[in-house]
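Morning!

This is the sequence you dropped in the shared folder:
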Amino acid sequence: MSDKVITIPQFDTLPSPVYLRYDEFGADTHSPAHRHAWGQLNYAAHGIMHLDIDGQRFVSPPHYAVWVPPDTEHSCYNPQAIVYRSVYLDRELCRALPAQPCTLVISEILKAILGDFARRDVKIPEDEADRRLAQVLVDQLRQAPTQTCFLPYARSAGLHGVLQALHAEPGDNRPLAAWAATVHVSERTLARQFLRELGMSFGEWKLRLRFLKAIEALEHNLPIQQIAFDLGYSSPSAFIAMFQRHAHCTPEHYRRQARAQGV
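The structure's back. Tokens below.
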């Protein structure tokens, strides 16, 4: 399996306060660790991008993006092909954006603007209409809800073991009490660990993991029913409802879009 290096644009200074970048990266591609003087939004319109930012791991599934503040070391790895969108922002424009790396929830307006710029291959908004769109884009980023990470990881050994086991078998439907028994703590203690270390409940973390695994399975062209059962759902309809909650579209619609974009 090859591991291909992504070419990173080299600028001494940004060509424009808002600079846009689009690409399609194949499976098993990565960028080496680097940093730059401007902020960067990383967004996968299709597929899942994995980023390492100052030693923290982030994933960027559709409808979410990862924000990298200026002067912050980061690298990425794409286990599968992705359709990539990126926005570079001048340091001055970053002052109203988070000072720490985080996940941003991408609005439909922001997705539409990024999609429009990408279709027209606009890298530098030059005419008046595009400059207005770029300003709306920046305003939308400033208003975007933030999360520390879409799928956070554990620090304590016991909780880390539970998460690793779920990664290996995302369809495991054992309740929290059963998982607590495997690491020799009470159900209440493990529930508190999820909230304290991950910022979300056991159920929410497991749903997010299943969403990421579903995207991988869809891009391997597995049947919906098989994906649903592999992920522990008793019916395809329950799986579809979960997927729509996170992707705002059905699994089949997501797959058609991915095919249309050549992922």
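Headline: The chain has nine helices and eleven strands.

More detail when I'm at my desk.
O.
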